[in-house]
Q: What sequence folds into this?
């Protein structure tokens, strides 16, 4: 452009002055970075040298047993390099140090007099102990730990069923000993079962029936007769089936329990009832019931009163219930020494620990000759011969 020009020398000087500061700063930063790298390399070499010195020391002193130091502190010192650095990770890898060996990890407290039983990987420098029998103090106890359920009641016979003797075909259970059937198949029936063909039950191998006599209302407390009871007991007797009974109790006093037992005795009069008369305690699943006020002691007294009333009449009482009800909602030691048990458990290998005479093993099942779903039972006692 005319009349406007640059002085080149002055401009170059100004440019050099502007660049001098950044260049110096770049050089300084680069020097620091190089120095840091050198320090890291030097530290790494020292650590490697320390480890190598430790390994060489082991080779030069083969009689020194460094694999089994007396204390955790000895172990840590043995794994210290020339610069005082401790390789803790290597200690763990070599199984030389454990959390409980460090005093400051006292949360893992244990009796240090108890011998350790570490799993050591054998190599050419370790003694092979794989075939040695542990000392008695190191051998785990074979005795199982006890629990409240394991503390069986003295004087009550234990469950001695051999489950390998059980055979189930088409939901029908049989118990066989040396090829001989030692059980008796039964069915539970009530108005909820609908119409029943007792002749068909007889023909398919049913030996006995447990018939519902009646129930007490869960709210009103009024006792009522099962609507099918009279028809069922007559038909069962005509079919030559053995008969047992049960009553659904919601008694809240011992007087009501005795009243329920007498209700059964009155309605069975004139019939040949050889199987037991069962006390069946019922609450109310989806509503409050008058029995909700009862404690364990109350329930036990009510059950005992019902069954003792039956026993006093010359008939056989039996306690019905699940394992949980019998062992947890009652005081079992006050009942199981005197009365038989009718167990409800659909597990084919029940864990109920005591002897039971009748077993309700299959519920809500279709049974030929019964209009609506009902339950299969099996008795291990032929009560008709008692």
A:
């Amino acid at each position: 452009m005319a009349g406007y020009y640059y002085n080149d020398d002055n401009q170059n000087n100004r440019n050099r002055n502007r660049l001098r500061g950044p260049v110096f700063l770049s050089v300084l930063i680069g020097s620091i970075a190089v120095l840091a790298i050198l320090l890291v390399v030097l530290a790494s070499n020292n650590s490697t040298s320390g480890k190598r010195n430790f390994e060489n020391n082991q080779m030069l002193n083969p009689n020194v047993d460094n694999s089994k130091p007396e204390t955790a502190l000895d172990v840590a010192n043995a794994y210290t390099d020339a610069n005082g650095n401790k390789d803790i990770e290597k200690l763990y890898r070599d199984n030389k140090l454990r959390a409980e060996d460090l005093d400051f990890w006292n949360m893992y407290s244990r009796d240090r007099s108890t011998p350790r039983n570490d799993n050591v990987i054998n190599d050419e420098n370790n003694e092979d102990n794989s075939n040695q029998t542990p000392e008695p103090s190191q051998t785990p106890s074979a005795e199982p730990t006890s629990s409240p359920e394991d503390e069986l009641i003295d004087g009550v016979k234990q469950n001695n069923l051999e489950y390998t003797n059980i055979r189930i075909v088409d939901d029908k259970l049989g118990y066989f000993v040396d090829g001989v059937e030692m059980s008796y198949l039964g069915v539970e029936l009530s108005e909820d079962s609908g119409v029943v063909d007792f002749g068909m039950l007889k023909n398919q191998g049913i030996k006995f029936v447990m018939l519902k006599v009646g129930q007490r209302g869960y709210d009103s407390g009024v006792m009522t007769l099962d609507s099918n009871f009279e028809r069922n007991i007559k038909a069962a007797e005509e079919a030559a089936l053995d008969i047992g009974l049960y009553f659904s109790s919601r008694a809240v006093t011992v007087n009501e329990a005795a009243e329920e037992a007498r209700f059964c005795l009155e309605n069975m009069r004139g019939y040949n009832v050889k199987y037991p008369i069962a006390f069946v305690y019922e609450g109310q699943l989806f509503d409050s019931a008058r029995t909700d006020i009862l404690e364990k002691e109350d329930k036990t007294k009510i059950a005992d009163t019902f069954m003792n009333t039956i026993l006093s009449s010359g008939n056989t009482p039996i306690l019905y219930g699940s394992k949980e009800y019998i062992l947890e909602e009652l005081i079992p030691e006050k009942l199981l020494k005197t009365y038989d048990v009718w167990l409800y458990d659909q597990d084919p290998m029940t864990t109920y620990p005591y002897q039971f005479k009748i077993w309700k093993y299959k519920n809500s099942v279709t049974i030929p000759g019964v209009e609506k779903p009902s339950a299969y039972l099996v008795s291990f006692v032929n009560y008709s011969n008692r």
